[in-house]
């Protein structure tokens, strides 16, 4: 079977499958979802921070020259500031047209955190597509395993994304539609990598750093302040426990996927040097 066709099929599975597996959260009834949503926000906080600090940032800093470390750090800082300015612009645009003082919703009642999570997730999915393609270009079996590993470690993050989108005012249908659309960036990354993997290899750390900055900003600027709105001891303990659960689950799943992704890139690099 044509290798490009396999890459397209399995990058689609790696991205869309994780979204569909996580979408069960959307089909809870209103009462159950209202009860689960605050817990989902706590879990999403831990998951996003774990993806950023345990997965994306270490991966970005691997195998880079020492003179690039500072530039990658600058990209993370610039990304956080850039997402702050983007969110400010979105809030300002709504307030400018509606003559309000300041709040965090656009003309359709959507909080900017929803758009920011879609942007950051799109970048992350794009990188996943490149990694899946790199695995297929090394070995078909390795490509299949990598795509399944990507889907597995994306599922808990996608559950958190759905929670954030619903919290941001998106309907169930729109949350599913935009998350599937964002997941298609995996296919784009896979196709682009098939034709120009060597050219993209040097740019990968910067994509990873930018994705990490978006997840850090969303967790710290949008989600954690929401958690601080409730100060009861029982709720606070639940929040800490769910943040820890999000961190532990992402770290455990990412460890397996990360090892496979590194192996695929190393093999591809070795074959290219022969």
Automatic annotation (TrEMBL):
GO terms for molecular function: metal ion transmembrane transporter activity. Pfam families: Zip. The chain crosses the membrane at residues 6-28, 40-57, 69-86, 176-197, 203-224, 236-257. The keyword Cell cycle does not apply. Keywords: Membrane, Transmembrane, Transmembrane helix. It comes from the Bacteria. GO terms for cellular component: membrane. It is a multi-pass membrane protein. It is found in: Membrane. InterPro entries: ZIP. This is Zinc/iron permease. It comes from Methylotuvimicrobium alcaliphilum (strain DSM 19304 / NCIMB 14124 / VKM B-2133 / 20Z). The lineage of its organism: Bacteria, Pseudomonadati, Pseudomonadota, Gammaproteobacteria, Methylococcales.
